[in-house]
């Protein structure tokens, strides 16, 4: 019922939704890492207790403890003892950039492109259906969201894009599409919209959002879908270019025996995050 | 049943049948909401005590808990939402064990919905702007919001029924119940069927709640010449729909029934 009480709390619900299958500690770790890097969990925010986390995710307490331990080692959370104690997110943008870059290097081009195909299938059809199913009030709501949107920083633009895509998915009236949109955002949102580090990409992203709303008003589903899919393909191609540069840089720094690599330093058009 | 039980204003053979079906599904739910509103109003009217969420929340929880055990899965959330000038920004709202996000809980388990209630928090959102609050506030009556995908709460496809609660003339909140659209469909479809006629229940935006027409998906907008004139006209005096179609508001719920020839 409390639709839009908390922006982004849907993605939060997806983060704490039960996990199934093997490799649960890794999955817990991956999900929480992504949530922190994506900014769904904010700097300084207290995480649920080990027991609570285990209960919410449907894993054993030791699994949750293991994941929290690795998060501590990766300096993404710190633990305070005592009455106001607990695990708190310690997220500084710098560490997040390195993590995102590491992940991008670890993924193959095939995996990155396949993520784009999967996300296009979900977001593209959601946009197409939304054009048929959005009422005038729905459109007004979307326009309000765009008017309030802040594209000043990469994080703000990514949150804005996440909110916009989620709202469009909700207009499809399909619970399955919405759940899949949430899941993809929670797991890959930080990677998928890495291109928003780039100020010109942020402007373009907002222009595409406006054009998508215009297509919804015109009840032009094909156009809404095409705008969405093109935007995703462009973002994926940016990622592959960034990945190539990171790999080049990685090879040269390996010979220089320098350890760290960051896209913010090497991207051709990228404004630092 | 309640002072506001659904009653058809004029009979058409198909819409009358549809009307009693819609009433059979929603009237009992609104009857329970009337009961809750009455209890909250009596609580708020105690002459010598200040209203406090520490008192009201347990009261609501006991009412709501009964709802989940009796409803066989139809209810996905229920509770009381306070006006900011009553208990502050506050949701005394519970979710059922049906919610997939809490599938680890025992079937009878309910959980309190946690929300950001601090207006200074960046994540805070003003719920008094939302349809399930705004419409009952404006009309002073019951309202049905949706269907919509409630992605911030349960990810379920939902109808939200709300009723305003007053202390004297002052609005102090709304009581509400979230119903699963799946369950509404199960309850309604068998009662709507009629030979050669397609019956569609829509909301005030023209969005399909359920339809006996195979070609009309729940959630789609019903597109019919003249329909928007009917939806914008509460008096019932709007010009006619295409031949063979009838339109009927379902009391003050914001739902309407459109009947027409079944596609051949």
Automatic annotation (TrEMBL), chain A:
Gene Ontology MF terms in the entry: DNA binding; DNA-binding transcription factor activity
UniProt-listed InterPro entries: GntR_C, TF_FadR/GntR_C, Tscrpt_reg_HTH_GntR, WH-like_DNA-bd_sf, WH_DNA-bd_sf
Stated name of the protein: DNA-binding transcriptional regulator, FadR family
Residue ranges of domain HTH gntR-type in the record: 22-92
Keywords: DNA-binding, Transcription, Transcription regulation
Source taxon at top rank: Bacteria
Stored PANTHER family: TRANSCRIPTIONAL REGULATOR, GNTR FAMILY (PTHR43537), TRANSCRIPTIONAL REGULATORY PROTEIN (PTHR43537:SF49)
From TrEMBL, chain B:
Alphabetized Gene3D superfamilies for the sequence: PAS domain
Pfam families for this protein: MCP-like_PDC_1
Domain of life: Bacteria
Protein name: Cache domain-containing protein
